[in-house]
Amino acid sequence: MAMIRFNRPMSDIFSEMERIRNEIDRIFHQGFSGPSARDAAGVFPPVNIYEDKEKYLLTAELPGVKPEDVEITATEDSVTIKGERKPEDGGEKASYHRRERESGFFRRVVSIPDRIDPNKVEATSRDGILYLTLPKAEDVKPRQIKVKSSE
């Protein structure tokens, strides 16, 4: 049996340990069964949420969905968007070469980071984008505190 001398620099060992640690983190992050079918299909509709002092703003991509086919309900801490994306031309009898755009019913519940006033929620739609204005509840809005002089 031949003996092989280890002559790699220590930095290679640490690099290899870092690579192994990253691989283990990746496995735990994805789970042992790999990405689920839901992850592969994505989430519909994709949304963005951002805020200013007075409100949260939610945008949702709904291309091809008419505003009258969307139903929105709001509670103090979540918004539900549901509706139907109807099939495009061709229908079920067409012979598709590629069919990546799905159709059918969808429902998405989005949690809001803080409480909102569900009675003041407004929705508009433009160019396939749904815009929701979600006013913050009065008691969660930031307040400016004036400093009083103690003199």
Structure description:
The protein is an alpha+beta fold and 151 residues long. It has helices at residues 10-30, 37-41, and strands at 47-51, 55-61, 70-74, 78-85, 104-111, 122-126, 129-135. The strands form 2 sheets. A 4-stranded antiparallel sheet has the order 1-2-7-6, with no helix packed on it. It has a 3-stranded antiparallel sheet with strand order 3-4-5, with no helix packed on it. Strand 6 (122-126) and strand 7 (129-135) form a beta hairpin. The radius of gyration is 26 Å and the shape is flat. The termini are far apart.
Strand order of the largest sheet: 1-2-7-6
In DSSP terms (H or I, runs of 4 or more residues), the helix count works out at 2
Shape: flat
Q: Approximately how much beta-strand content do the residues carry?
A: 25-35%
Fraction of residues in H or I helices: 10-25%
Specify the structural class: alpha+beta
Largest sheet, if any? 4 strands, antiparallel
Q: Which blocks of ≥5 consecutive residues have pLDDT under 50?
A: 35-40
Distance between the termini: 89 Å
Layout: helices, strands, pairs:
Elements: H1 10-30, H2 37-41, E1 47-51, E2 55-61, E3 70-74, E4 78-85, E5 104-111, E6 122-126, E7 129-135
Question: Which features characterize this protein?
Answer:
17% helix; 151 residues; three-stranded antiparallel sheet; 7 strands; flat
Summary, kept brief:
The protein is an alpha+beta fold and 151 residues long.
